Amino acid sequence: MLRADPLLRIELLMLASEAQDAALMLARFGVFNPAPCALEALEESPAVAYREAWLEAQARLSKLLEQCGDTGPLNIPADAEAPALADLEELNAWLKEVWTACLACHESEVQIAEARSHLDALEVTLARLERLNVDLAHLLHPDSLLAVNIGSLPVEGLKRVTEALAMTGHLVSRFDQVGEQVFAVIAGPRARQDEVRGLLAQAGWRELPVPDELRTHPQAARSWMEQERTRLNTQSGAACQIMDGLRDRFGPRLHEARLRLALAHPLAEAALAGVRGRGGLAALSGWVPKRQMDGLRTTLNGHFHGRYWLDVREPSAGEVADVPSLVRYPGWLAPFVPLVKSYGIPRYGEFDPALPFAFTYLLLFGAMFGDIGHGAVILLLSAALTRRLGRMAWVGFAAGAVSMLFGLLYGSVFGYEDIIEPVWLSPLHDPIRVLIIAVGFGVGFIVFTLLVNTLNKWASGRIGEALFDSTGLAGLAFYLGAVGLLASLAGVVDLAQPAGMLAALGMVVVAAFKWFEAKAGLGERILVTLIESLETAINLFSNTLSFMRVAAFSLNHVALALAIFTLANGLGTAGHWFTIVLGNIVIIVLEGGIVAIQALRLMYYEGFSRFFSGDGTEFVPLRLSSQQAKV
Amino acid sequence: MSAYLNTRVSLYSGRLWQDEALDALVGVPDEAMADTLTRRGLPQLAAAYPLQPGRQQDPRSLEQRIIAQILDETRVLIRPLSGAARSFLTFWTARFEISNVKTLLRSKMTGERPAAVLARLTPMGAFGRLDNQDLAHAEDVGELLRRLEAGPYAGIVRHARRAFEQSRDPFSLDAALDQGYYEGLTLRAQPLEDTVGAPFRSLMASLIDRINLVWLLRYRFNYRLPPAQVYYLLVGSRYSLPSSRLQELAALDSLEAVLAALPSALQIQLSGVTDISGVFARMERAAAEQALRVLRSSAPDIARAFAYLILRERDLRAVRAVLRGRHLGLAPADIRQALQRAPPEVS
């Protein structure tokens, strides 16, 4: 829970023809994280074609399912085998065929929809032409010297088309606009029609199909319009029938395709990390938890009966940065993990901060927002919204409970300080004590983070940094000495001399370390050493003072409640209770939100940044696509 | 923020390549190449040169690595910007993504497999707005265009689709995409031209005038398109070659006639040029000179940043020419001849 599981690096060699089954077996095993293969002798990539075929087939299947609807829940039999490359390519070809047929129907539907909308626009246009009472027969007469086109084009291109057509002696007369389409008449010398054809096509010009009836008189177009609508409806119906036919005819086969693609997914996924091979051999490489190694061997023997070769080794010092982190959390801690991961993933071997994070976060939240009533509201709201919030509701639930606990300690119920006696102290009546406790907590927290950082550095082999750096033991010595010195000056303890010596020793060691670490000229080295040593002192001091906000927010909580009571007391009975209720809602939503963020900020910047690099890689096991993660 | 961008542009401008540095690059030994490129601020290009034997080769093409370098630097320059300036520089990077769109469309016309085309696309990093995986798996041009039309370049693609549906000509697709992109760029430049003024406008003028003139010559005399169609395919311009002038030029019958009808400043710039590639080279050189003047002036930061990006891209093309020439085993003298490009020092 506090550290990642120890992992082993494995290279699994098997017959290339069984690679898909090996990947499927590893996915079922549930704790194999694929990684690039390091066997240089294997220079081929035998799973690339498999992955390519899988991606194409999967894309086609997704589009088909989008059109035809889901085919129901997918149950993968325990003994089902993964398809070979030839099977996968055959499946891909079939899916292509079906999707092409489906696409033609889909395209046809889109075109029919466009034609309908064009017809609607045409109807409006014809109604206007009708009012003009134009003799279109005369206008559109094919034997005249004048070529006339009636049609539409996108409004944004009209100006440019008009200018371009003017170069060929053509005129554009716009007579209507429906949406983004402009309806226009283009007229020009028939001899130059060829010159404008390409231009009009480029401009998206769409010729209006002017029926013969319209050529004699616009009123006669009504019946033609009706015929067109009927024709489009018939076409649309035919397209729908084809789509329905696809669903009925291919539904079961599509379900089968889903199953086979799910079985092929592990090798396609492993190929992304890099499956290497040569001749008839293929190698899968990755990481497996040490404690499950025996289980893996047993499973491999059960499947391949000795037709494999397994190389197992501990991660080398040089590759620790590439080893994924696998940490197992108990159910009650899991909801806090996303809050840690939003900062970063712990490196392999690094201290995992989820557990101290959960405790400290709740403690800080409760201390800043201690109120039995407000805590109860948060708790009840979290309980009521469990279904919507999922596991995160547990964070709200715990925060509400801790807030209630601190409310009991502070004697605060919905801001009222006189209903129950504080079990511990009232922030309003003893603010200095609250401030001292907050800073004291901050000192303890920073000491903890420095210790953890020392351990992390030590574990990763950076002994120099662990002992002598500003965030290592030397920094800790300086910090403890400086705190002791300040406490002595404040008269709390009498340790001025040893504390001062400890602080000085710590700072000298830190400065010496910075001096040796700085790879620069003399002047720059002096500057770096001075500035970084000074920064160490300033950072530790300011980080400690940051914890004063815990006290400030606990006082702020009471002060807000007092302000609401003062407002409410100046009003009548109804106004009084309305203000009290509204004020408490504001406190819960606004102040509760701010306190939640401030507690997170304290954890991230005063805590995590000191010991947690957050640049680790998450352990992502290979798994069947319909299978939930076992880890 | 302004001080940050100003300092950043000034620091970056130290990375620009002088003729001598490019000349020296021709003769750098292979084993020292990675170090030389890294020292010149080109880690993305240095990644292709293994210093240790057995080191894994960078799978990206030289072109992809050059664009990655440009995108890296643009990302840094964009950081302090907001509003119109940010929108403009972000859209300036979009031409690489439009190029990806063209690659995708061509792959659908030729029936290329998705994995092959995906490997050829330029990774756009934080500037990427398209789901290349999804687009590469479209079944044909029609499906791809529909998918693109539901994305961030809907305006550009809708126009291209209509043109393609009418003509079924791949040329009309490419031309419509290019035109749509540059129309979008001039639209985004308009507010900056109003606020930033002459330095920024001069950079846009060099760019759009060059594009319009080269396209006009190419469409008119290489592809033999009618004047009206040529004019329609150009970018709406408000610079040295406004719409009325472009109409007149498109109606002329020969390259010489077009060059003779240009405004006097352009005529002087292009004197002695006899072909379209010469027009492009000469105008690009003039644009680089103008960008260098803006970069070295006390112009507003966004103008200097844009000028730097123009010069940087030109530099990287020259570096690419050197690297490619070396890769192909060309003689140093041939590579040097191909590098006749640098603008003279501004006095």
Strand fraction of chain A equals 5-15%
**Percent in helix of chain B:** over 70%
Helix segment tally of chain A: 21
Shape field of chain B: globular
Assign the structural class of chain B, choosing from mainly alpha, mainly beta, alpha/beta, alpha+beta, or little secondary structure: mainly alpha
Number of domains of chain A: 3
Q: Detail the poorly predicted runs of chain B.
A: 51-55, 342-347
Oligomer: heterodimer
Task: Point out poorly predicted stretches of chain A.
Answer: 627-631
- Termini separation of chain B comes to 30 Å
Q: What value does the average pLDDT of chain A take?
A: 87
Would you list the SSEs of chain B in sequence order as H and E?
A: HHHHHHHHHHHHHHHHHHH
Main beta sheet strand tally, sense and closure of chain B: none
The gyration radius over C-alpha positions of chain A equals 37 Å
Task: Report the largest inter-chain contact.
Answer: A-B, 37 and 36 residues
Number of helices of chain B: 19
What proportion of the residues of chain A is helical, as a percent range?
Answer: 55-70%
Give the total of beta strands of chain B. 0
Protein architecture, described:
The complex is a heterodimer of chains A (631) and B (347). Chain A has 21 helices and eleven strands. Chain A has helices spanning 19-29, 48-68, 85-132, 136-139, 158-166, 193-202, 212-216, 221-273, 293-304, 337-341, 354-368, 372-384, 386-389, 393-410, 431-459, 463-468, 473-489, 496-517, 522-546, 548-569, 573-611; strands spanning 7-15, 33-34, 146-154, 171-178, 181-189, 206-207, 276-278, 281-289, 308-313, 324-325, 617-618. The radius of gyration of chain A is 37 Å and the shape is extended. Residues 627-631 of chain A have low confidence and may be disordered. With 347 residues, chain B is mainly α. Chain B has a domain at 198-299. In chain B, α6 packs antiparallel against α11 (170-196) and α10 runs antiparallel to α11. The longest helix of chain B has 28 residues, at 83-110. Residues 51-55 and 342-347 of chain B have low confidence and may be disordered. The chains are: A alpha+beta (631), B mainly alpha (347).
